[in-house]
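Lecture notes, part 5. Sequence design as translation. It can be helpful to think of inverse folding as translation between two languages: the language of shapes and the language of residues. The source text, in structure tokens, appears below.
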């Protein structure tokens, strides 16, 4: 999978820019706030139809303009695909091969990306929300069924939370309707949990040998999907549904006091263990960083195994956060097989032995010069 070119119009600090890319490693050099990360953000938009930096999409429209436009051409094993997104203050229009997509879920999945940025180093020690977003982002690209269920679950949970608040405020009294909402939510939750559990197992399969190599054979990494519902016996859908309903029933009084849904995949988590010890709680910074690196490299291989094609890799100023050894493992892993977009303020200190004939661009004040 390769992104051949990218065109930007009134996107962030870019007025009008078009740039062709190498199928190998593309390096963008520039000072901070010149537009390097915005370029990766635009590529990310063509993948997931949203930003990885902000939930306020108006921020991506250049100041004193009405709309922003991002387009590009993707080449995969079988075809060339044109992708575009137009952002306005009233919403966005996404097109595949110049045809407008009625649902954004139909747009997502054509261009697969793996993003590795400094904030991803908090994946292990950060909040559970970060890890849930990590799973949702990767699974959503590869599995349209999961993407649909995830959107559906969020919609139903919002509806259920609103009704819980109405019951608390005595604006509603029909608890039978609450049970209907609960059953619908649990049905969707079962699908999400099953997909996440399977993805965690697939990710572990790829991450374990990578982590073993990076740690020179001293460490074994294991992943565990954590849910208040027992998953140890790999329950089928019906069993999992009943276990979820039992847990929700036990939390009913608390939910009616607080007005929020307390049980479900929106509160689940992912645990990392190294040699049987929780690396989130007891691991050194080096172990935590090795775990994140292993996870990111595993994402790439997992995506290749599921989709049949390597994703595009976005490295947003992350090499400066890795020591020479971890840089070497990262760059050796992507060498000559993955199209990569790398931003940096300088090539100094980067292990250049593993960057084979990079195409280098200078970015300054929203202008790109090869």
């Amino acid at each position: 999978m390769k992104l051949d070119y990218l065109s930007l119009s009134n996107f962030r600090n870019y007025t009008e820019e078009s740039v062709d890319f190498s199928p190998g490693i593309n390096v963008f050099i520039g000072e901070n706030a010149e537009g390097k990360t915005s370029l990766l953000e635009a590529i990310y938009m063509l993948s997931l139809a949203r930003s990885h930096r902000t939930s306020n999409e108006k921020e991506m429209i250049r100041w004193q303009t009405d709309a922003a436009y991002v387009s590009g051409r993707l080449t995969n094993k079988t075809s060339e695909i044109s992708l575009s997104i137009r952002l306005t203050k009233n919403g966005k229009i996404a097109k595949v091969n110049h045809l407008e997509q009625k649902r954004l879920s139909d747009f997502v999945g054509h261009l697969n990306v793996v993003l590795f940025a400094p904030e991803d180093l908090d994946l292990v020690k950060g909040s559970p929300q970060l890890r849930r977003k990590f799973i949702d982002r990767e699974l959503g690209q590869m599995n349209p069924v999961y993407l649909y269920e995830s959107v559906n679950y969020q919609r139903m949970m919002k509806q259920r939370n609103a009704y819980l608040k109405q019951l608390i405020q005595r604006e509603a009294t029909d608890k039978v309707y609450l049970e209907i909402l609960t059953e619908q939510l649990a049905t969707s939750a079962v699908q999400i949990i099953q997909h996440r559990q399977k993805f965690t197992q697939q990710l572990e399969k790829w991450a374990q040998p990578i982590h073993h190599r990076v740690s020179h054979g001293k460490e074994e990494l294991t992943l565990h999907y954590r849910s208040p519902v027992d998953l140890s016996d790999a329950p089928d859908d019906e069993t999992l549904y009943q276990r979820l309903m039992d847990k929700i029933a036990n939390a009913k009084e608390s939910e009616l006091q607080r007005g929020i849904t307390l049980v479900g995949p929106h509160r689940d988590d992912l645990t990392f263990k190294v040699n049987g010890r929780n690396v989130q709680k007891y691991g050194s910074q080096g172990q935590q960083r090795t775990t994140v690196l292993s996870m990111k490299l595993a994402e790439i291989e997992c995506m290749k195994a599921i989709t049949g094609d390597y994703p595009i890799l976005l490295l947003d100023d992350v090499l400066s956060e890795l020591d020479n050894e971890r840089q070497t493992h990262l760059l050796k892993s992507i060498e000559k097989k993955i199209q990569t977009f790398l931003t940096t303020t300088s090539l100094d200190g980067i292990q250049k032995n593993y960057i084979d004939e990079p195409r280098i661009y200078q970015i300054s004040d929203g202008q790109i010069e090869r």
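The translated text above is only one of many valid answers, since several sequences can fold into similar shapes. The first strand starts at residue 2 and ends at 11.
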